[in-house]
């Protein structure tokens, strides 16, 4: 371990002066307190108490979060492997370990008082604990539908705030709670939410996102927040700021940013020192002055720590913080035109792009993307032009139509971090006085200040953003990357936790002298040391620590080599082959490129050359289990590769994915290593488990491909998708590689699993240069060329929104068709479909010219071409249907989207089953869209509401999903079951409940109601149940948690439908069992009686239909008990308890034998009351 201090201070001198002046009664000089803090914090260092450090890396996993109690006496650690650890802060002793605190990793801990704390987890729950009795949680809060990552607490109102990756921020009222659950409100919803924080006084809420900006909600009022920000889409407004294009659906919310708002005023922060993609970590200054965040670029190559001022600014600063976008004026009479007239672009297709994708698009001659297009938002204008439906709003506020509110610069400090531990969030923290920032830094931490005097922020706010001052770096104190740290709120104490599961404690070590260059090896009271004993059990750790973090030319220390060489050879081999953190010392040395260490471990200690370890590939964000040779080859350490091969390492050893060292070196484009391995016998035609060969992995480099081909690489080798290297070269637009492969005999007629050859792949990917090369080099039949031109034109429409380019290629196709003596027909023949508005594909120049007058017609023509040439089951056919449908939703043309998505769902079910994940994805998106469409029609927000068409659509989708429902469940429960299929089936059942709701809402005639009832009776005969919880449709329909969520749109917001009286009554009238039990033996009444789901009318409805109010579930809970604990309950339970039920309860309680002694009808009743 090493510690670098950036300034030397003498603690003894300051201590003497402080005590002497205090005894003399002298007043402190100016800056005296700053001097004290500077001495204390600059001498922070790791230490151990007399109690040995406890390590539980095997079973607890990474330390994701650390939190001290309010009095600073206790520390709680949130661990990756579902556990929670409790420590005594005074002596670092572990008091308690709760092994199964949650069902998944624990993400965050928050103390509510000195003894009570809350935890949240990836199991979507929040739990409340008491440090005095940790055998079980106080209560569990359910409501989130995805990983819960953050907990905040408003002490004055006793409200707990939680946020999760489902995009919801919930406020839990801890004053009004029962033993089972608590009343909560959904106060804010947005897609891409990462963290939510409150200022200490509760007047501001700060939200960081996955799209490179922070949201501040000033003058926070939780009671009205949900209503104030209803339907507000932060990403859409941010997009408008970036694109300099006004969207009416965004500018109508300009009033939320205005200074005269009394509460819940919005402000965005976007000035980061890097191209921020994800704001992963967020902390608030103890005084509420600033926000501390950690941002990551899109390719995760850079991480930065930033400090932003979040205090309310002078109103004059906001006066000029806007921009007007000048557009052609619209005459009043023009506004009365029909909805078919195109006016302004309001359609935004929101798809995510990486920076590499964006650069490729920008450099493409086929596209015209503005320079201010922001990659992190990932937005492509699909070009649909729709009706401006917001004219009423802008008549009242005309100034808002073309006004975009701008963001003020708020960045004050920043510093670049090491980009290690990719994929993990690093939690920063402030000291209790707010002077110091602790930041995880590789395998240690570093302390940062606002200036070199460690003053408070209010005394050192810069005029321009400047770099944070590094006070100290404490490196290599952990065996793995540090991801969490926390200051004690009452004492000068600091802790940090790492991915390896170790916790290190720090405090000011005032007896230790630091000369500024590093740490002297001087014994100091309480200071941690790397080694204190010659015990053999400690040597493996010392071997690993001694070389793990050294430079490539490092050697093992003389003392360590001496200690190792004292043991016999077989003992040395056993020691150096021990694994720590998934890796043996030889593996770590190979990864670091420490050639001398590798040679010493092999020759002196006989390390196992084939002992596998864990390797994280930075570019792939994946972890592989491989040999040292594979590790050195991927890391680009040629000298290490040469040593390993020299000493006999298996040159064709494989990783856990079946990849050889030479194949993986090809992927990383390490030319010299590939040359060396091939010269020494590496098999370049050996594929991994997915069929990928060295040549397929090398299409990014013409030089590498040429070398492999000259050494016998199979140019036509296929992977499991039946793709060759030529397919991948064309996909990546590699013209030179394509030319080289064809020159060496690549089969350009070879087809992939989807039937794509080289020419079709070029058409689908829009690789125009490769397309031109292929048609000029290869003699294709005229019909093939015609189809290729038509498909390429379709790609220009869908991928690039380039109508001119599409028209050029389509005209060329028409010319080729007409140039044949016999006019080439379009095959196969496509019959008109309702989803395409019964259009036919153009067959002549005149028909094409007619289609070009209508943008909708152009896009339908593109879909017709795609489906005819590719076939309905091709993945790109379905993708383009989904894409085009989504673009219609952006301009609120729901019916057009439903038409296209119905066709996509039909294809999915014909090709696969409802268990297939893509089928489930399509069904969820479609049904959720129908629900949203119905709500807007009820509110008279749309003009295209055709009840007959909507009813037909709902019935058609319902019948598609129900047709093979019974067979699908039987397949899904076959062991071993597939998790995605099980979850997909359960989601399909939720879709069916929502479709029944839509049928009831739209079916307003007697004939329709009779038809609906017949459909529900038919599904009752099947009586489908979810697989995970065995809930019936009635269970789902009484639950508030029965919602539809689809990640197809950025502004995802689920519409709560259930519990819904009409649906429940219909199910009960059609014969669904009101006392049906699920997997936990709970009836629908159990679910309805839960406090989070409580509705008085629902309880009474189920009881009126014969539900047993005293029927126990597997936990022994009865609805009577749940209702008794609910302060809102107004149901008088004694009115619903019968003498028969009481008798059955007594019989079960005292285990009285009743079988064959009472009538069978009573036997069934008694069985229902069994626990």
TrEMBL record:
Q: Does the keyword Repeat apply?
A: yes
Q: Keywords in UniProt for this one? A: ANK repeat, Repeat, WD repeat
SUPFAM superfamilies named in the record: Ankyrin repeat (SSF48403), WD40 repeat-like (SSF50978)
Q: Where are the WD repeats?
A: 99-139, 141-182
Residue ranges of coiled coil: none
Q: Which family does it belong to?
A: Belongs to the WD repeat DCAF10 family.
Q: Which GO terms describe its cellular component?
A: Cul4-RING E3 ubiquitin ligase complex
Where does each ANK repeat begin and end? 624-656, 657-689, 721-753, 1080-1114
Q: What's the short name of a Pfam family annotated to this entry?
A: WD40
The source's domain of life comes to Eukaryota
Q: Which InterPro entries match?
A: Ankyrin_rpt, Ankyrin_rpt-contain_sf, DCA10, WD40/YVTN_repeat-like_dom_sf, WD40_repeat_CS, WD40_repeat_dom_sf, WD40_rpt
List, alphabetically, the Gene3D superfamilies matched.
Ankyrin repeat-containing domain, YVTN repeat-like/Quinoprotein amine dehydrogenase
- State whether keyword Repeat applies: yes
User: What name appears for this protein in its UniProt entry?
Assistant: WD repeat-containing protein 55 homolog
The organism named in the record is: Photinus pyralis
């Amino acid at each position: 371990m090493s510690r670098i201090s950036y300034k030397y201070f003498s603690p003894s001198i300051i201590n003497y002066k402080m005590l002497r002046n205090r005894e003399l009664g002298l007043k402190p000089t100016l800056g005296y307190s700053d001097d004290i803090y500077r001495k204390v914090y600059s001498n922070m260092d790791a230490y151990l108490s007399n109690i040995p450090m406890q390590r539980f890396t095997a079973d607890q996993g990474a330390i994701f979060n650390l939190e001290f109690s309010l009095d600073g006496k206790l520390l709680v650690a949130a661990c990756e492997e579902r556990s929670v650890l409790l420590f005594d802060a005074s002596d670092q002793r572990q008091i308690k370990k709760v092994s199964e605190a949650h069902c998944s990793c624990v993400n965050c801990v928050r103390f509510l008082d000195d003894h009570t704390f809350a935890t949240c987890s990836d199991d979507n729950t929040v739990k409340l604990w008491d440090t005095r009795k940790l055998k079980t949680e106080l209560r569990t809060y359910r409501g989130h539908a995805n990983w819960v990552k953050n907990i905040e607490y408003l002490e004055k109102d006793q409200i707990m705030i939680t946020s999760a990756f489902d995009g919801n921020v919930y406020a839990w009222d801890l004053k009004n709670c029962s033993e089972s659950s608590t009343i909560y409100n959904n106060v804010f919803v947005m897609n891409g939410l990462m963290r939510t924080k409150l200022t200490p006084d509760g007047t501001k809420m700060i939200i960081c996102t996955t799209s490179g900006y922070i949201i501040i909600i000033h003058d926070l009022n939780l009671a009205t927040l949900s209503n104030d920000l209803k339907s507000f889409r932060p990403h859409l407004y941010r997009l408008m700021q970036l694109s300099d294009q006004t969207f009416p659906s965004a500018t109508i919310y300009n009033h939320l940013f205005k200074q005269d708002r009394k509460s819940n005023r919005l402000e965005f922060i976007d000035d980061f020192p890097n191209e921020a993609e994800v704001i992963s970590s967020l902390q608030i200054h103890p005084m509420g002055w600033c926000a501390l965040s950690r941002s990551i670029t899109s390719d995760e190559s850079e991480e930065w720590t930033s400090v932003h001022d979040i205090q309310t600014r002078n109103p004059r600063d906001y006066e000029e913080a806007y921009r007007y976008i000048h557009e052609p004026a619209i005459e009043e009479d023009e506004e009365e035109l029909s909805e078919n007239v195109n006016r302004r672009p309001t359609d935004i297709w929101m798809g995510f792009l990486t920076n590499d994708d964006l650069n490729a698009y920008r450099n493409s001659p086929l596209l015209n993307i503005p320079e201010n297009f922001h990659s992190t938002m990932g937005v492509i204008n699909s070009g649909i032009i729709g009706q401006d439906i917001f004219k009423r709003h802008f008549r009242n506020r005309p100034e808002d139509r073309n006004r975009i509110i701008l963001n003020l610069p708020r960045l004050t400090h920043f510093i670049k971090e090491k980009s290690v531990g990719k994929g993990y969030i690093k939690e920063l923290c402030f000291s209790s006085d707010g002077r110091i920032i602790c930041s995880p830094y590789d395998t240690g931490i570093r302390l940062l200040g606002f200036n070199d005097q460690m003053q408070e922020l209010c005394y050192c706010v810069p005029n321009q953003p400047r770099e944070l001052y590094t006070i100290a770096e404490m490196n290599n104190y952990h065996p793995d990357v540090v991801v969490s740290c926390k200051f004690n709120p009452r004492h000068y104490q600091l802790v940090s936790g790492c991915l390896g599961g170790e916790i290190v404690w720090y405090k000011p070590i005032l007896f230790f002298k630091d000369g500024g260059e590093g740490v002297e090896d001087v014994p100091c009271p309480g200071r941690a040391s790397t080694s204190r004993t010659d015990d053999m059990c400690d040597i493996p750790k010392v071997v690993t620590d001694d070389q793990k973090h050294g430079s490539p030319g490092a050697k093992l220390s003389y003392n360590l080599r001496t200690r190792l060489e004292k043991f016999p050879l077989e003992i040395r081999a056993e020691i150096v082959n021990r694994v720590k953190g998934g890796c043996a010392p030889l593996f770590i040395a190979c990864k670091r490129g420490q050639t001398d260490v590798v040679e010493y471990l092999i020759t002196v200690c006989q390390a196992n050359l084939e002992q596998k370890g864990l390797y994280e590939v930075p570019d792939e964000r994946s972890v592989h289990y491989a040999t040292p040779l594979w590790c050195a080859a991927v890391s680009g350490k040629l000298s290490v590769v040469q040593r390993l091969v020299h000493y006999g390492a298996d040159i064709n050893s494989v990783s856990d994915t079946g990849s050889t060292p030479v194949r993986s070196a090809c992927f990383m484009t390490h030319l010299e290593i590939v040359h060396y391995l091939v010269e020494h016998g590496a098999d370049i035609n050996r594929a991994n488990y997915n069929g990928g060969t060295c040549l397929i992995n090398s299409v990014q480099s013409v030089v590498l491909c040429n070398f492999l081909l000259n050494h016998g690489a199979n140019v036509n080798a296929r992977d499991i998708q039946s793709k060759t290297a030529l397919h991948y070269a064309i996909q990546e637009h590699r013209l030179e590689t394509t030319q080289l492969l064809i020159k060496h005999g690549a089969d350009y007629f070879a087809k992939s699993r989807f039937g794509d050859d080289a020419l079709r792949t070029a058409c689908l990917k829009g690789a125009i240069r490769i397309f031109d090369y292929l048609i000029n080099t290869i003699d294709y039949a005229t019909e093939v060329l015609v189809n290729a031109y038509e498909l390429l034109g379709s790609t220009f429409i869908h991928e690039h929104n380039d109508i001119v380019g599409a028209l050029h290629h389509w005209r060329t196709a028409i010319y080729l068709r007409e140039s044949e003596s016999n006019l080439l027909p379009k095959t196969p023949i496509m019959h008109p479909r309702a989803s395409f508005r019964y259009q036919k594909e153009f067959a002549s120049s005149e028909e094409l010219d007619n289609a070009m007058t209508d943008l909708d017609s152009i896009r339908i023509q593109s879909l017709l071409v795609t489906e005819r040439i590719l076939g309905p089951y091709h993945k790109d056919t379905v993708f383009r249907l989904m894409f085009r449908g989504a673009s219609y939703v952006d301009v609120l043309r729901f019916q057009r989207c439903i038409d296209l998505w119905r066709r996509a769902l039909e294809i999915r079910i014909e090709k696969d089953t409802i268990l297939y994940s893509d089928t489930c994805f399509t069904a969820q998106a479609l049904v959720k869209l129908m629900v949203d469409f119905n709500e807007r029609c009820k509110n008279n927000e749309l003009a295209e509401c055709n009840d007959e068409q909507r009813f037909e659509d709902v019935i058609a989708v319902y019948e598609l999903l129900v047709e093979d429902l019974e067979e699908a469940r039987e397949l899904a429960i076959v062991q071993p079951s597939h998790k995605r299929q099980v979850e997909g089936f359960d989601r399909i059942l939720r879709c069916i409940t929502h479709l029944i709701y839509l049928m009831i809402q739209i079916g307003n005639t007697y004939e329709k109601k009779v038809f609906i009832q017949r459909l529900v009776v038919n599904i009752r005969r099947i009586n489908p149940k979810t697989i995970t919880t065995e809930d019936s449709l009635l269970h789902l329909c009484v639950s508030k948690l029965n919602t539809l969520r689809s990640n197809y749109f950025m502004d995802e917001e689920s519409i709560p439908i259930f519990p819904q009286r009409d649906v429940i009554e219909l199910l009960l009238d059609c014969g669904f069992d009101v006392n049906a039990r699920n997997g936990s033996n709970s009836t629908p009444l159990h679910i309805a009686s839960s406090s989070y789901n409580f509705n008085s009318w629902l309880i009474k409805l189920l009881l009126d239909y014969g539900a047993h109010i005293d029927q126990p579930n597997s936990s022994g809970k009865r609805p009577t008990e749940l209702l008794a604990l609910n302060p809102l309950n107004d149901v008088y339970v004694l009115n619903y308890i019968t003498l028969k039920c009481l008798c059955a309860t007594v019989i079960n309680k005292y285990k009285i034998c009743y079988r064959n002694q009472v009538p069978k009808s009573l036997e069934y009743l008694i069985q229902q009351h069994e626990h």
